[in-house]
């Protein structure tokens, strides 16, 4: 099923690569290079998922994720962060900002699509389970 994915990535090659992979997966992709347009683009496009580069010129992807989580109209949209950071503390910062998952660059196609599909799938908590945890 086609989903709408907002792709925020300033690097031209990564934006093209991620966009091509997502489109090949049957999704409707809005790629944007300028992070300062991310929230406005979300309001217009109504994405089912946001893929957010953390290192953006002039604005941090962390700040954008935090802004998304504070916005009543946007906060329910899952966010997959992609980052060139590798440090242990960085994962915590990214999750604290409100990202649902993150991938470290360089991102491989297989894990990338797995992470995308996991966030697009219905939440497991929405499925009643007969077995006690
Ligand atoms: Mn970047």
Describe the structure.
With 133 residues, this protein is α/β, with parallel strands linked by helices. The protein has one domain (4-120): Rossmann fold (3-Layer(aba) Sandwich), CATH 3.40.50. 40% of the residues lie in helices and 18% in strands. The protein has five helices and five strands, in the order E-H-E-H-E-H-E-H-E-H. Strand 4 (79-83), helix 4 (88-97) and strand 5 form a beta-alpha-beta unit. The longest helix has 13 residues, at 12-24. Manganese (II) ion (MN) binds at residues 10-11, 53, 55-56.
**CATH fold label:** Rossmann fold
Strand arrangement, major sheet: 2-1-3-4-5
The overall pLDDT average reads 92
The total of helices stands at 5
What is the number of beta strands?
Answer: 5
**Largest β-sheet summary:** 5 strands, parallel
Q: Structural class given helices, strands, pairing?
A: alpha/beta
Q: What percentage of residues falls in helices of 4 or more residues?
A: 25-40%
N-to-C series of helices and strands:
EHEHEHEHEH
Give unreliable regions as ranges.
none
> Radius of gyration, rounded?
15 Å
Assembly state = single chain
| SS strand fraction | 15-25%
- So what's the overall shape? globular
Instruction: State the fourth-level CATH superfamily.
Output: Response regulator
> Which small molecules are bound?
manganese (II) ion
Overall number of structural domains: 1
CATH architecture: 3-Layer(aba) Sandwich
CATH class: Alpha Beta
Note the gap between the termini: 30 Å
């Amino acid at each position: 099923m086609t989903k709408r994915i907002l792709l925020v990535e300033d690097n031209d090659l990564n934006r093209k690569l991620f966009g091509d992979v997502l489109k090949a997966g049957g999704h409707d992709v809005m790629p944007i290079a300028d992070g300062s347009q991310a929230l406005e683009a979300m309001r217009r496009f109504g994405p089912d998922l946001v893929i957010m580069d953390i290192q953006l010129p002039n604005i941090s992807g962390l700040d954008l994720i935090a802004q998304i989580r504070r916005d009543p109209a946007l906060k329910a949209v899952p966010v997959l962060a992609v980052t060139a950071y590798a440090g242990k503390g960085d994962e915590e910062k990214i999750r604290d900002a409100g990202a649902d998952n993150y991938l470290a660059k360089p991102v491989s196609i297989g894990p990338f699509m797995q992470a995308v599909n996991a966030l697009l799938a219905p939440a497991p908590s929405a499925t009643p389970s007969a077995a006690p945890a």
